[in-house]
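Hi R.,

As promised, here are both runs. First protein below:
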Amino acid sequence: MNQQFSKLKKAVEVFHSYGITLAGERKNDHFIQKLNMDPVFINGLIFELEYNLQLFFQDEWLGKACTPKEVIKLLMNIPQDN
């Protein structure tokens, strides 16, 4: 549980560095349509999450994650040994 909390805390810091708040309904905003993020910045966000958390997202999983909430959900479901 403690590892999950620390992983979540680091992820929140990365999202905040991109100006994305995870509070309230904003966590459900689509990266491109609502947050007006360029795909290059989305790739940068994913890279920073992978780098800071020392894990790897599968490309087929990321294709389904279009909101910050979905990315966090993916993050919490990645096995600990990854």
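And here is the second one, sequence first, then its structure tokens:
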Amino acid sequence: MTVDEFLDDARAELDRLEPEKALAAQRDGALIVDIRPHVNRAEEGEIPGALPIERIHLEWRLDPTGSHRVPEVRPDSRVIVVCNEGYASSLAARDLHRIGLPGATDLVGGFRAWRAAGLPVQPGGSPAIP
């Protein structure tokens, strides 16, 4: 299987959101999780209200039954994963399905599409939740 096929398989499991729909979902209570490295968040900014959880810690912090999860996450949580351009986030959201978050998806085009759409961005550099 090629990486493109791998990505296509992951995306087939997701109801991916365009930036405007992701903002509407956030306003309706969805949790946006920013998996970008600190350097990207510091240089480009962040989505207001997003939880910065780097990819290496994602499953541990979002496992709805795990002892290391963030308190905002429940099995019925709607989670929108954000990376730079929407590739790593698709794979991450698929993995979240596998650990018990069927409401996980990702942002089409990632943070850069959000910013290009003129949606709210704040200065970055928040430390990630370890």
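A quick note on the second one: The mean pLDDT is 96. Let me know what you think.

Best,
J.
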